[in-house]
Design a protein that fits this description.
two-stranded antiparallel ribbon, alpha/beta, globular, 5-stranded mixed β-sheet, Uracil-DNA Glycosylase, subunit E, single chain, 7 strands, 277 residues
C-alpha cells in the first residue's frame, strides 16, 4: 500500500472510531457477549491497493449490509465482528486481505465491479487512459448507511435519521478524503442523499461525475426482458468480456457471481447514462 493509501485509511478509521454509532442504534443488529448487548459500529470503505495511483478514482455506494436474522451468514459475521472491534471498523478491507469476498452483496455477486468497469470505460473514451488489469485494485466501495436493521434489511426499513447522520458523520468525510472522480450511486435513495451531501459548501466545488445505477436487487423485471440480437452481441462483446478484469471470489453459498444472469440490467445502466449525458 502507498503512503497516500495508508494516510487516507488511517483518517477514515479515526473518524469511525470517534463516531462509532448513530441515533436509534438500538434498532440495529447486535449480539450478546457476557450477558450484555453489543452493537456493530460503523466501518470504513474498502479501498483498492492502487486506488490513489489510478485515474479515474471511482467510489461506489450501495445501501446497507443485510444482516437481518433470516440471512444465513449473519450469525457468523456478527459474532466475529462484535468480538473484534478493530476488525468491525475495517471489516471490508480485512475481508479482502484475508482472501474473502468484500461483504457487500452486490459487489460480491459481480454487479458493482462490472458497472464500475463500464463507468471507467465511459471515462476513458472522454478523457483517455487505460482500463485497469483488475478493477478490485483501483475501486473504493462501501454502503451509504453503515448499519443494518434487526428484522428487515430492506431500504424502506432504514430510519430516516440514519441516512442523514451517516451522511454527515461518514459519507461527506469519505468523499473529502478519497477525492473520487466518479461516484456510482446504487439505488434512487442513495443517489438522492449523495446529491444532498455533494451540495454542501465544502463539497460543491469538487468536480465529481455522479452516475445513477438501479440497485441490483430490483431487477426481476429486467431479467425477464429478452435481449435483441444486437443487444446480445453488445453484451457478449463489450460488457461481459470486461469480467476478465474482475477478481472472482471463491465460491460458496453466498459469494458467487450472478451478474451473468442479468444482461438486461447492464444494458439499461449504460442506456440510462447515455440518456442523462
Amino acid at each position: 500500500m502507498t503512503e497516500e493509501w495508508r494516510g487516507a485509511h488511517a483518517k477514515l478509521l479515526e473518524n469511525v472510531k470517534h463516531k462509532p454509532l448513530v441515533s436509534l442504534y438500538k434498532e440495529s443488529v447486535s449480539t450478546e457477549i457476557g450477558g450484555r448487548k453489543v452493537y456493530l459500529p460503523a466501518y470504513v470503505p474498502y479501498i483498492g491497493a492502487r486506488y490513489f495511483e489510478y485515474r479515474p478514482r471511482i467510489l461506489c455506494y450501495a445501501i446497507n449490509q443485510n444482516l437481518s436474522p433470516h440471512v444465513p451468514w449473519t450469525r457468523e459475521w456478527v459474532s466475529y465482528w462484535t468480538r473484534n472491534e478493530e476488525c468491525a471498523f475495517d471489516r471490508l478491507n480485512r475481508a479482502a486481505c484475508e482472501g474473502r469476498p468484500i461483504p457487500i452483496r452486490p459487489y460480491a455477486e459481480g454487479f458493482i465491479p462490472l458497472v464500475g468497469l463500464l463507468a471507467i470505460r465511459r471515462w476513458t473514451k472522454r478523457h483517455g487512459g487505460q482500463l485497469p488489469d483488475k478493477i478490485d485494485d483501483v475501486v473504493a466501495v462501501t454502503n451509504f448507511v453503515k448499519f443494518s436493521t434487526r428484522e428487515d434489511a430492506s431500504s424502506s426499513s432504514i430510519p430516516k435519521v440514519w441516512w442523514r447522520e451517516c451522511a454527515s458523520c461518514y459519507v461527506a468525510y469519505e468523499i473529502e478524503v478519497l477525492e473520487p472522480d466518479i461516484i456510482l450511486a446504487f439505488g434512487q435513495k442513495t443517489l438522492t442523499e449523495l446529491r444532498r451531501v455533494l451540495s454542501s459548501e465544502r463539497l460543491s466545488k469538487l468536480k465529481i461525475d455522479v452516475l445513477r445505477c438501479r440497485f441490483p436487487a430490483r431487477i426481476a423485471s429486467v431479467k425477464a426482458r429478452p435481449l435483441s440480437s444486437e443487444e446480445s452481441r453488445t453484451w457478449k462483446r463489450d460488457i461481459l468480456a470486461l469480467s476478465q478484469r474482475m477478481r472472482e471470489p471463491k465460491e460458496n453459498a453466498y459469494h458467487r457471481w450472478k451478474m451473468e444472469r442479468f444482461p438486461g440490467y447492464f444494458m439499461d445502466v449504460v442506456a440510462s447514462w447515455d440518456y442523462e449525458g
